[in-house]
Amino acid sequence: MIMEADFVKDSIELESAHSVSLGTILIIEDDPRMQKVLRRIFTEEHYAVLVAGDGQTGLDLFRTERPLAVVLDLILPGIPGRELCQKFKSISSETPIIVLSAISEVVDKVLLLELGADDYVTKPFSPRELTARIQAAIRRQRKPARAEIFRFADCEIDFKSMSARRNKVPVSLTAHEFKLLKYFTDNIDRVLTRELLLNEVWGYNSYPTTRTVDNQILKLRQKLETNPADPKHILTIYGAGYKFVP
Hints:
This protein is α/β, with parallel strands linked by helices. The protein has helices spanning 4-7, 32-44, 55-65, 81-91, 106-114, 127-141, 175-186, 194-202, 211-224, and strands at 13-16, 24-28, 48-52, 69-72, 97-101, 119-122, 149-152, 155-158, 163-166, 169-171, 234-237, 241-244.
């Protein structure tokens, strides 16, 4: 009989089921059984797989291997998932981070998304849903890049370095505020529904409340608009959604 400990001999494993892979997925998960399931899912989809069983190992692998995407558990030995998410985004803001956790509270999902996570999948999960979420996040990241520095009114936004200035004074934006603003600047003058923003920016096909979008836009206006109560750039289109006008 093959014991689970025999199957996962180390906290790190690199597998490639095919001579040519679509890229490397880093899985950070401490449960050997879940490691096995996730490894099988992604190798069957033609990805190479790296597995880390603790936070520090996951961070080291991220730094050295620069994976295509990360599947991240929250409850980990060593560095917890929330802290890892922040560290990953500070190292490479472009790498998609998909949180996979049994924690399903809305407040935790919102917190992770504000820390920079690209999506959140709750255990138990559908393998098809998980791979679809990963692939969608990768596609969003691979869209043709626009100019990294975007200027409007008295604002200057550097999306590459994730820095913002208004009237030449630094403005502090969260990783998710940068992500939302980038989607607006990629879709100038287009009316964007709350549902579209949740799907494309937050990565959710459904969400308990669209107030998530409204609250995030309110924060952006407070930081970037001259008069947040009478915005000139991030506009509300009543009955439809929002529109960005430079």
